[in-house]
Amino acid sequence: MIAPTPPMGWNSWNTFGSEIHETLIRETADAFLEQGLKEAGYQYVVIDDLWEADERDSDGRLTHDPAKFPHGIKALADYVHSKGLKFGIYSCAGSHTCAGKPASYGYEETDARTFAEWGVDFLKYDFCYKPAGTDGPTLYRRMGQALRMTGRPILYSVCEWGSNKPWEWAAGVGAQMWRTTGDIEDSWESMERIGFGQNGLERYAGPDHWNDPDMLIVGMYGKGNVAKGGCTDEEYRVHFSLWCLLAAPLMIGCDVRNMTDATREILTNRRVIAVNQDPLGRQGFRVGQEWDKFEVWMKQLADGSVAVGLFNRHESWGRKIAVAWESLGLHDRRACRVEDLWSGEDLGEHRGSFSAFVAPHSVVLIRLTPIV
């Protein structure tokens, strides 16, 4: 398997958009080690759209923008690999990328071979400029077959925005992850709409096939390519908690070279990441809701414990949110040890239920471990 647990890494789009270049990507790879991201499990460094030259080369192959990447893509991939990391790139299933650069329609085998020769480990494959008379599943199958023919294990990320319900077919065309939604923006409203809208897709996720509600906005603070007002640190904690319960790919979107302490603490919390990376591979789902604002989500874990998120989506009301054991599939007399996953605090032994006060736009994330 290429992705037995949800992929973890970084993508250039959310913060940098078109402002990508060789030095930035090298510095980002360096920051994975310096900031503790590699140690926490992040491994993919992915460049998004606008790395390409305006035209293919004389042999019909995609090539790099020489001003942005003077030493070429293979040299950059080699540098990323030298740090013990993996390298990712972007293309599109249509005739042009979303930014108007040459894309892979009609060149799937050529481009897949090129990516493999460069040492690419991850392909994000977009859905702009789809030719008339074609359909998403067929276009994505063509690239999936081309990638397999290279013999190189390249993680295949289908980015068709949920247009054709890719959760129903993308694993069958060779993808390890697929977008379930349009692009996320750096705002509470965007994160809330996308994240809490994932309920019901959990049966399509598992080892080597993951629903992808788009990249992380943690640490952007209203700056960058998808900035729409930004979020507070507590709202980013809600975001990260939910993505981890969802077994979503954790693709960082902020500038990891210049993270705040709060951002670093969120993105590298080992207890919370362990929920996302749990080998059972279950996607979490909602088990309780009041007034569309106060929600309880659960995720079953391989050791028999259960991760539970108590979420307050209300703008101004804090309140106590409770979870009953029976909603989690636990006997109501079963004793469980409760741990706060953000702080690591042992909250003691509980039977039947657990409750906690949750502030507006906040979360209490816990792990319930049955006591034998």
Radius of gyration: 21 Å
Instruction: Indicate the CATH architecture of the largest domain.
Output: Alpha-Beta Barrel
How many DSSP E strands? Answer: 18
N- and C-termini, Cα separation: 33 Å
- What order do the helices and strands follow? EHHHEHEHEHEEEHEEHEHHEEEEEEEE
Portion of residues in beta strands equals 15-25%
If you consult CATH, what is the topology of the largest domain?
TIM Barrel
Q: Return the structural class.
A: alpha/beta
What share of residues is helical?
25-40%
CATH homologous superfamily (4th level) name of the largest domain: Aldolase class I
Coarse morphology: globular
The biggest beta sheet reads: 8 strands, parallel
Domain module count? 2
Show unreliable segments. none
CATH class of the largest domain: Alpha Beta
Quickly count the helices. Answer: 10
Core attributes:
single chain, 372 residues, alpha/beta, TIM Barrel, Immunoglobulin-like, eight-stranded parallel sheet, six-stranded antiparallel sheet, 18 strands, 24% strand
Describe this structure in words.
The protein has 372 residues and is an alpha/beta fold. It has two domains: 8-276, Aldolase class I (TIM Barrel, Alpha-Beta Barrel); 285-370, Immunoglobulin-like, CATH 2.60.40.1180. It is built from ten helices and 18 strands. The protein starts with 7 loop residues before the first strand and ends with a strand. The protein is globular and about 70 Å long. Strand 12 (294-300) and strand 13 form a beta hairpin. The strands form four sheets. An eight-stranded parallel sheet has the order 8-6-5-4-3-2-1-10. Strands 11-12-13-18-15-16 form a six-stranded antiparallel sheet, covered by helices on one side. The protein has a two-stranded parallel ribbon with strand order 7-9. The longest helix has 15 residues, at 136-150.
